[in-house]
Amino acid sequence: MGLLTIPSNVTEFLLLGLIQNPHVQKILFIFFFFIFLFTVLANLFIVVTISISPTLSSPMYFFLTYLAFIDAFFISVTTPKLSIDLLHQRRTISWGGCLTQLFLVHFLGGSEIIVLIVMAYDRYVAICKPLHYMTIMRQGVCQLLVVVAWIGGILHATVQILFTMDFTFCGPNVIDNFMCDFFSLLEISCSDTYRLGIVVATNSGVMCLLIFPMLVISYIVILSSLKSHGSEERRKASSTCGSHFTVVVLFFGSCIVTYTHPVATYPVDK
Length: 270
Fold this sequence. Notes:
By secondary structure, the protein is mainly α. It has helices spanning 22-52, 59-85, 95-128, 133-136, 139-164, 182-188, 194-225, 231-259; strands at residues 12-15, 92-94, 174-175.
């Protein structure tokens, strides 16, 4: 049976999805389909462009390639099923499919957090220690940091799955969401999940709360150091750091909203 052993008499879950109105569902299907298509193609375009361009070989573009790859894979975990479910009134997901979706979301999310940290460090070295940049961020170090990101994502996702395996589902099996997530499963589990909720909130929410301020401070330090640079260098560095910081705010903002709500009630904000 292994990891996918079902700890209850529930073999599948019913997903309520985003909305129940059939007409709105069709509109949302078109909306999410084009967002999914655009996001995947745009990120793959970034990956291909950087890979074939000899002028985009710096560590910054190396990490950007992996960030784009993760984002393309990330949206592919949930959005295709969300779009298909919008065309059906009965939306189900198996126990194994639920665990797979949960693992991939947290694996890719954890990996992306580490890649964003690495990219912030890369910009810090490039701007604050330009003479040592190529020595510090040499190819072997960059590859090692990417491996660390993958390993960190796997460890984070494995912790989530191990906790989920302790759940017992006696019914109902209805998830008021469009995907399988830890808090959604907590709501319908008939086992004592209070302590598990605290642990998961600590594992995901506190991690976001700790890392996000650190990244904000790091970008403030980077931008402050630009005072001694020329106007053209300041413009280029501000543009690069500005785009990085936007991604950080969007990613960690949604992470904090999702995983730092009170664990006593587990309200899920779809």
